[in-house]
Design brief:
Two copies of one chain form a homodimer. Chain A has two domains: 1-121 and 296-325, 3-Layer(aba) Sandwich (Isopropylmalate Dehydrogenase); 126-288 and 326-363, 3-Layer(aba) Sandwich (Isopropylmalate Dehydrogenase). Chain A contains 15 helices and eleven strands. In chain A, 55% of the residues are buried. With 363 residues, chain A is of the alpha/beta class. In chain A, a hairpin with a 4-residue loop joins strand 10 (291-294) and strand 11. In chain A, helix 7 (155-172) runs antiparallel to helix 14. Chain A has helices spanning 18-31, 43-51, 54-58, 75-82, 87-96, 109-119, 155-172, 194-205, 219-224, 234-259, 263-271, 273-282, 309-324, 327-350, 353-357, and strands spanning 5-10, 35-41, 60-64, 102-105, 130-136, 141-145, 179-183, 212-217, 229-231, 291-294, 299-302. In chain A, strands 3-2-1-4-11-10-5-6-9-7-8 form an eleven-stranded mixed beta sheet, with helices on both faces. Chain A is 50% helix and 15% strand. The model of chain A is unreliable at 350-363 (pLDDT under 50). Chain A is globular and about 60 Å long.
Chain lengths: 363, 363
């Protein structure tokens, strides 16, 4: 039989902790029976819930973690309190120790990001990790990265983001060759940042497997779903993500107030309530559950803090599929290719221009 | 009698040209009777429309412009074709020649930005112009700048943006002391860009008139209306603006498909149609008509290209109020204060630390 995919779970993470994480794991096991779990958290709280799921319990090792990181703990504080002893840290360390293939946590993003950077190494050839979000679009879903793991990016890092996002898209969206766009501003007058332009040239000139470079995209192309993967540096990506969230909330507020404004609109709402329910579901954050930390020598999935068992199972399934389909290996291969292509570039640029321009001079 | 506010109009700008711009001017004159207009454009097209508005015609000088800049002309092309001879250029040049106090154009943004930079000087003490947008929020409206006039900003430029945005807010929102926030990312782990942090310190330490510095804000604070003025550099600002537009369109598409999905939802839509109309109006770009170029030694308003006479009149009214309420003078005063404060800072930093730390050493 195929070896199990070993998933480390931070059971104390998220708004509901074990009450959601354990049933979520049980649910994931029904669609991905080849998972085995290592669960970290408060044993006294977890054991009774786990006992209600005998099939899950049979495939789970439960490890007691004395500390739980609260959802509002600041990253620096989380590191001080939780290093070595928290469920979040221990779940990450399991990868480092070779006891798990991937980690899933619904805990707070900042703390998970800080602990991941602290506990795990970045992948060979990648300078800094990135946070990739799955973004709902008119066309379906896209991956947007970096949405806030680090600030600033040179052209090489942008190319790394493109490679990592495309590799993730092949697995999450089951695409052979995902399209990739670089986020830029449209005005011809401005013509974008130098790093973005250089990254565009590198992506166009390097033949990377499983990546179709589309060119520049603008902010409104994200929601339009113009490309499968949108690449940008972490500051802009984080602001774009939060601006979109803010706009969605704002329109939701307009809509609610419009629907309760008059008797007629209330009647209308009554008749259309299933349509509104469908709309709400479409905008449901559970549907796009799980941001992914990329660039680490590990698979780390951040599940939405407020999610339920269905959402958490989705995050576990994504983690499973990334292990099974060798996300890290795919990224490694592309990164090596890109580096090779860049060093060939460097060789070219050391050859005297004269020789390159007129080879007949050699004869 | 008070001197008239002289407004130069690019009558050929916008999707509908004279058919909207002339009636828009007529409408603005009813609420701001102290305006006089200089109109630039194709005389043969404009004259018959102007003749239908005798009150307007009496306060208008019509100047023939042989070239009109199309809405899809690239900025560089617009400069080549339209320098000196286009209605857009001539309307901007009118300020330079002292023949107008402000310019309003519904023409294409990139071309207007390029021509403004080319034709007009930046204000003393301001390095680069900025594009300020009026952004609808849950609370009302906010000003967001720079949404794409230039890329990158050091701390000084961010402070300039704060000053210009606040001065605009005192006039457009009729506020004594608008609140100003610097757009940043929230994660404690990241703590934002150095320039943004320095700008925050400068704004906190400098007592600027008509500006209450709120601190950092995040992307979702824009739609929430947390502050009256949101300050960010042009690359991020442009991407935030377009991402919000994209999200609004996306939700609009979801909503339309939800409302036409079933017979019940169609009935619901019928009853709630006035609520939907109100919602649509709320999201109507005409309501937030007019971005403003700040930092030029001139008042230049960009009206929405697809607007009607009501929207265009709004843009003209904003231009009028900015002249009457001395926007440029307000900005100049604040910029001078900020510069003074910075040079005092510089004096401080040249005093040997020892002396500052222990004044008793002097005795």
């Amino acid at each position: 039989m195929e070896q199990a995919v070993r998933i480390a779970l931070d059971v104390m993470g998220g708004d509901h902790g074990p009450a959601v994480v354990v049933p979520g794991a049980a649910r994931a096991l029904t669609t991905r029976p080849d998972i085995s779990f290592v669960m970290y958290g408060d044993e006294a709280l977890i054991r009774p819930i786990l006992d209600q799921h005998p099939a899950l319990a049979a495939r789970t090792t439960l490890v007691h973690a004395p500390v739980s990181i609260a959802m509002d703990t600041k990253p620096s504080q989380a590191l001080r309190q939780g290093r070595r002893v928290s469920s979040m840290w221990m779940a990450l360390e399991a990868i480092k120790k070779g006891e798990a293939d991937a980690t899933v946590s619904a805990g707070n993003t900042g703390a998970l990001m800080a602990m991941s950077k602290f506990c795990l190494r970045t992948m060979a050839g990648i300078d800094r990790p990135a946070l990739a979000a799955i973004w709902p679009t008119i066309r379906g879903e896209s991956i947007v990265l970096d949405v806030g793991a680090s600030i600033g990016a040179d052209a090489t890092h942008l190319v790394d983001l493109a490679i990592m996002g495309a590799a993730m898209a092949t697995i999450v969206f089951e695409l052979e060759t995902p399209t990739v766009g670089l986020l830029n501003v449209g005005t011809e007058e401005i013509k974008g940042i130098e790093e973005v332009k250089t990254a565009g040239r590198l992506l166009r000139e390097t033949a990377l497997p499983n990546l179709a470079y589309h060119g520049f995209v603008e902010g409104d192309d994200i929601g339009r779903g113009t490309v499968d993967v949108v690449v940008t540096e972490g500051f802009t990506g984080n602001i774009a993500l939060k601006t979109a969230e803010g706009t969605a909330k704002q329109i939701g507020a307009y809509l609610r107030s419009a629907m309760s404004a008059t008797l007629m609109s209330k009647i209308g709402y009554f008749f259309a309530r299933s349509a509104f329910a469908a709309l709400k579901e479409k905008m449901d954050p559970r549907r796009v559950n799980g941001a992914v930390f990329l660039g680490l020598d590990a698979i780390v999935i951040k599940s939405h803090g407020g999610t339920d068992a269905v959402g958490l199972a989705g995050a576990i399934e994504v983690a499973h599929d990334m292990v099974r389909q060798e996300l890290l290996e795919k990224i490694r291969r592309s990164v090596a290719l890109a580096q090779e292509s860049r060093s060939l570039d460097a060789v070219d640029s050391t050859v005297p221009t004269q020789l390159v321009a007129s080879p007949e001079a050699l004869s």
